[in-house]
Fold this sequence. Notes:
- The protein is an alpha/beta fold and 443 residues long.
- 24% of the residues lie in helices and 27% in strands.
- It has helices spanning 42-46, 72-78, 98-108, 125-134, 150-160, 185-202, 326-340, 365-377, 403-412, 435-442; strands spanning 4-10, 16-17, 33-39, 66-67, 82-83, 87-92, 116-120, 142-145, 164-168, 206-211, 230-236, 242-250, 258-264, 267-270, 289-296, 299-310, 319-322, 348-353, 385-388, 390-391, 397-398, 417-420, 429-431.
- Strands 8-7-9-10-6-11-12-13-14 form a nine-stranded mixed sheet.
- Residues 92, 94-100, 131, 134-135, 263, 265-267 line the site of thymidine-5'-diphosphate.
Amino acid sequence: MAKVKVNFVCSECGYDTPKWLGKCPVCGKWDTFKEFKESGVSGERLVSDFREPVALSSAGKIISQRVLSGFSEFNRVTGGGIVSGMVMLIGGDPGIGKSTLMLQIADSLIVKFSKIVYICGEENPDQIGMRAFRLGINTDKIILYPDTELSSFVKWIENEGADLIIVDSIQTVYNDKSDSFAGSVNQLKESTSLLTNLAKKKNIPVILVGHVTKDGAIAGPRVLEHMVDTVLYLEGDRYHNFRILRCVKNRFGSTNETGLFEMTEGGIKEVNDPSAYFIDNIGISRNGSAFTVTMEGSRPLIIEIQALVATSSFGTPQRNTVGYDHKKLSKLLAVLEKRGGLFIGNSDVFINVTGGIKVDDPGVDLAVCAALVSSFTNKNLPERMAFIGEVGLAGEIRSVSYIEKRVGEAIKLGIEKVVTSGLKERSDVYNITNIYELLDRIN
Ligand code: TYD
Ligand code: MG
C-alpha cells in the first residue's frame, strides 16, 4: 500500500503545505487552502521500480554507454552525451529556445536512436512540424506524441518502446490517477517521479523541458532538481542571440562546463570560438566602457562592461543593472567612495554587460570599477586595455582563477595591456594591488 499523506493545497495557485494556512504565502489570497489526500506517488502504482540486486563490481557498466549528440557543445556540458536511463531536466525562460534546441538535438541523434518520442504539451504536433520544416528536419524516427496524460503514455511506451523520450514541457503533463491539482507542485513531482521510474526501469533516457518562473527556479520552487540526474539551464536574453547552456547538477559528470550557442534564423548553432563573438568593439574607446575576460566553464570569454553615471533627478538615486548583480554594484560603489574618494553615491548608476549575458564572476569587478570611473570622470579609458580582478572591501585587488589563461585570451584578441593583480609586471600586464593604483593607471 502506498503511504497516504495529508496535505493542504491552495486552490488559487496550487502551492502546497503540510499545515493549513489562512493566507497563501505565494498568491496572497485568504482562505484558499483545501485539504486533500495524496495517495502515494502514482509512479509507484504504474511502473514497478523493482530491479535485480547486483554486485558492486558489475554495477555502473551501463554508465559507459553514452550516446553523443551531433552538438559538441551539448556533449561538453553533459560530460559526454546521453546516458541510458538518465533523466535530464533542461530549464530556461519561455521563448529562449529550449524546444528548438531539443528538436535539433533529437534530429542529431537519429543516426544512433531509431525511435525518439517527443511529448507535445506546449505546442501541437502541427506547430512542431512547422518548426521542424523551418529547421530542415524531416524524419520519421521522431514520433510526436500529442497527449499529455501520463498513465496512458507509460502504457503506450511499455508496449511500443522508445530509445529516447523528450517531454516538452514537464509543466504540461499530468496523471489522471493522481489526486493532486493540475499544475500544482505535487502534480509536477508525481509526473517527474513517474517518468523517472519509467526511465530507470526501461533504461530509456528522458529529457524534461521545464519553464523557469519569475523568481528564476524551475516550476516555482526548485522541486525537481533533486529528483533528476542532470539539470541544465539555457540562459540568455531574448533580444540577443547568444545562449549559454549551463550545467548545475550532473550525476554523470562535472558541472564545470558550459555550452555556448547562438540563436539564428536557421535554429540554434554552436559557438566554438566564444571570445571572438564579442570582440567587435576592441580598439574603439568609448566613455564608460571597459573590457574584461570572464570564464565560462574552462573557456575564457572576453566581454564589455558599460557604465553610465548621471545626475540623479530624484531624492533616491537609481541603480540599474543588466547582466550584473545589483548588490555587487552597490558594494563596488561603496568601495570607490570609501577607498578611492570618488563620490558616485548620489548619482544614478547604470551597468550593462553587453551581448545579453549575465556574469557573476568576481573577476569582472575591476572592469566594472574602471567603467564607473571612466563615466564619472568623463574620461575614456586607454584603448586596448582590459581589467581583470576581484575588488575587496578594503579596496584591495585580488587575483582570480585562470588568470594566465584570461590574460592570454585578451592579448590574443587584440588587447595590448591587462590591468590585473597577482602577476609580475611585464610589457602587456600592469600589476596593481589596490583601487588607488587603478585610478593612477587609467588617468
Ligand atoms: P522556442 O524553442 O520555442 O523557445 P522555448 O521552447 O524555450 O519557449 O524558441 C522560441 C524563439 O526562438 C522564438 O522567439 C523564435 C526563435 N527562433 C529563432 O530565432 N530561430 C529559429 O530557427 C527558431 C525555430 C526559433
Ligand atoms: Mg517550448
